[in-house]
Amino acid sequence: MTSSAFAQQSPNEITIVAEPSVKVSGFDGASQQELPISVTAFDNATLRDVGAQRISDALRLDASVSDSYNLPAYWDKLSVRGYALDNRYNYRREGLPISAETIIPMDNKERIELLKGTSGIQSGTSAPGGLVNYVVKRAPSSADKTVRDVTLSYGTGNNRLTAADLGGRFGEDARFGYRFNVAHEDLDPYIRDTKGHRNLVALAMDWRINARNRLEWEFEQSHHEQIGVNFYSLLGAGTNALHPTVDGTRNITRQPNSQPGVFDGQTGTLRWRHQLDNNWIWTTQAGVQHLRADDRLVYASGCPTAPTDRFCANGDFEIRDYRSDNERRNNEAIQTYLRGQELIAGLEHSFKLSVMRQRQINRMSATHTDELLGTTNSFNGGLITATTANSRGGPMTNNSDYNTEVALNDRVKLNPQTTAWLGLRHTQLNRQSVQTNGTEAVQDTRSVNTPWVALSHQPNANDTVYASYGYGLEAEATPKVSNYTNAGQPLPALRSTQREVGFKRQNQHSFWQATWFDITRPQTTNGLGCSNTVGSCTLQMDGQSHHHGLELSGVTKLSQWNLGGSAMWLDAKRENATIQTDLNGQRPINVPQYILRGMTEYRHTNIVGLRSGLRVSHEGKRHVTENGDIRLPAWTTVDATTHYDTKINHVASSWTLAINNLANKQYWRESPRQYGQYFLYPGAPRTVRATVVFHL
Prior knowledge:
Oligomer: single chain
Helix content: under 10%
Strand content: over 45%
Structural class: mainly beta
Largest sheet: 22 strands, antiparallel, barrel
Distance between the termini: 32 Å
Shape: globular
């Protein structure tokens, strides 16, 4: 569902308009209606309406997206079409690769774009779920337009936000433009004992040098500091071992000595556009991202006796204090590309040839600590002091990635209704890792190709039908430790494939689409009996994961009503495993079979500027364990919002009152398995948010 498809003509008139070109598609200049891929774009108005402060807030509006070990006070981890996105390789900012191993602010973001499915068309190596692109706010397009917005917000819990968004143009012929964003938020959410704060300062500028040249640059600096939150877990062994208490307000691992996690980011881009002859455009852009983190979390590490992958039957669990300070992640990328049209053999070709060089350098602290604090209880809380010291820790891993990518896209107009879309990306990668003590060095150097092809047909101005086929690639190497027989050796490329067939319809009052997809991805295993014993493990291919499903989405305008929704049915299972044969036919952990999202909004005729709406989210059952003997129940939540646009003393303002989880439903939101543990995370209780934006 693309909420930005609505364009407001007057307080009570809304028309569906064509979507702008989306950067994440790889085909600049093509509208969303034309593209033979499934893309969702959420504009700033939608992000503001739902009070999105992080990407997980926004992408939950799309049924293809669900949580994947998504901790509060930590970076977002999401899955798309049942595949977890890789925070190192599946995220873009202004079209350039970034690391999402940090908390990314939303205050200066104009739009979020989501490409669903294998992302080889835009990324040399990445997980097959999809690709996320952040688009920052830019200066207004004309001198007679200015932005003077001040935002005050309260909630959810006891959060307090103050933000300003200023933009305009100046100079001779308004050649210079600026967009300045600043925000401060005191964090005291509905989860008790998780206080913190965050800050953002961002500036975007452009210079219209002349009719052929334009220079754009932008920079943001962010700081986020907050006490972390840990998951619940299963209770003991058995088929009915879900924790009976669902309380989303408790931070069950908070201790007096808990320290906040700290995430600092400095990110910027520089872009130069030059108009060549015959409508060709040459663009060069560079991006820099410097991240620093103090990764700290007091967490639950399982029952002190057995089983260690969950809490004890009475709710007891060991509690540990993990600290890794001064983690640094630096990303640098430069890309240059030519885009234009040529008539060849009587056919119109729209070309884009790009070359990109990227390096991603992660430098960790020399060691991390992982101290046992004692044993506590998920029902009663408190801390029982450990009788014996049990600290563990050791060296960290430094990573160095160097990528060079060359890509060619061609959109061929076969006739006025039919278009062929062709893409090929060649990637040379050099990945190195080594422990901070200088041991266990691993190097992976290889070249990979990711072709992509699609065919679209528009029988009329409103309808588009398409089919596509493409590849995605992931590169993985065996850790260089003694318990692996193939330590340090790269695995064959994990080549995922996707087939997709879609139909889109757009007219003056509605937009909707239907998409069928089929994705396969090779799976790896450490082998049966893998342990810390020397030579007990062999990392190798073992079958594949197979996800296929159907997505439906749409928005429409009926008189004063705006209606929208999306749905995904997903059949996901493991196939052809010869080592872990018991997993064949099993559904992956933490992947719901179906997801439904819906919204309805009414614009009141008797009060100009007043609109009220409801949003519904429903997610089906999830496997908690590998064989599915424990499952999370399906859940449904309803959110209510009221927005009022008015003037106070001739100052325009927008007021919002939002109530999330209106029925105060208690439910388990997700059930990931990470670090050898089964986790349960409760959904948020009823929360209230009040926001006002003054348009000065």
